[in-house]
Specification:
Elements lengths: L8 H30 L6 H42 L24 E12 L2 H14 L18 H11 L2 H6 L6 E13 L21 E7 L1 H20 L18 H24 L5 H20 L1
Antiparallel strand pairs: 1-2, 2-3
Helix pairs in contact: 1-2, 3-4, 7-8
Length: 311
């Protein structure tokens, strides 16, 4: 980009004025819709109220949606110019291109379309070729594909992919992708409402061109970006915890409360040891005890001593 094409401070000022105007228009549209919904029905509402009220509500909704889109575009433009000129950003999150518009589909859909996209990286080509060749050895008919005629599944990536995706369901490949030498990328699933079921073969020539984002009921996205955001948040939280001052004294002896029962505990331990010594002397004086019993008594004494120490 040449120097003449670089944005200026005047461009930033114009962009922020556009944001202010878009904010006013958005607020006006919201207030107008809210005021209309609270207003009581006028004369003739009993005859024409149903259809007219529905049309008015739809028009007010459209005005709010349009004002929202204008505000988002103005805010994004201002944010970009502010960064380019001053190397600063706003604290507002501008909806990106992956944000779905407001739902405009049927309230009670009679048909659904499920659109799935899964991206993979061929991380281990040789593993993929070997798996495809193994499939063709077990099922020679799986290698019959006119698009890769004359190619071997063990030597052609196109032939191998045709064999694998023809033999296994997409969900199974997603579950076992590492076995096939693939690495998962982003994926998304859209559930799209339809007014009526499509005719057989109607959309096969262009299966994804008729997907209307305004008819998407729900979507489910999987991306490593989400994991990275969670990791960044976790690291950030850990950093905040590490920065907290340690109120505990460095010396373990400082700050410890005096326990007046400590001396009693030591006295009880001494009494227990004296009792054990007396028991040992009595056992050693018993002429009927053999060496095995003496060892067993010593072991039992050690066990009792160890138990008391654990407590």
């Amino acid at each position: 980009m040449s120097d003449a094409a670089q944005p200026t401070a005047a461009d930033v000022r114009a962009a922020v004025e556009a944001v202010k105007a878009a904010l006013d228009r958005h607020l006006e549209a919201v207030e107008r819709r809210a005021g209309e919904s609270r207003a009581p029905g006028g004369a003739g509402a009993g005859e024409r109220g149903g259809a007219r009220a529905g049309a008015d509500a739809a028009a007010l909704d459209s005005a709010v949606y349009a004002a929202f889109d204008e505000l988002a575009a103005a805010g994004e433009n201002y944010d970009e110019l502010l960064y380019e000129v001053y190397d600063e950003v706003t604290p507002f999150e501008i909806p990106g291109g992956d944000t779905l518009p407001s739902y405009r589909g049927p309230e009670v859909p009679s048909a659904l379309s499920v659109l799935i996209r899964r991206d993979y990286t061929i991380a281990e080509p040789q593993r993929m070729l070997a798996q495809a060749e193994r499939v063709t050895e077990l099922d020679p008919d799986s290698a019959e594909d006119e698009r890769v005629e004359g190619a071997s599944a063990g030597s052609s990536a196109h032939a191998a992919l045709g064999v694998l995706f023809g033999e296994y369901e997409p969900d199974e490949i997603a579950t076992r992708h590492k076995e096939f030498g693939l690495e998962e990328g982003d994926s998304t699933l859209w559930v799209v409402a339809a007014d009526e079921p499509a005719e057989p073969g109607e959309w096969l020539s262009a299966p994804f061109e008729q997907a209307d984002p305004q008819h998407v009921i729900c979507r489910f996205d999987v991306s490593s970006v989400f994991d990275e955001d969670e990791e960044d948040l976790l690291v950030e939280t850990r950093g905040e915890l590490d920065d907290e001052p340690d109120d505990e004294p460095d010396d373990e002896s400082e700050g410890e409360p005096y326990n007046d029962h400590d001396e009693d505990d030591h006295d009880e331990d001494d009494e227990d040891e004296d009792d054990e010594d007396e028991d040992d002397e009595e056992e050693s004086d018993d002429p009927e005890d053999d060496d095995g019993d003496g060892e067993e008594s010593a072991d039992a004494s050690d066990a009792r001593e160890g138990t008391r120490r654990r407590r």
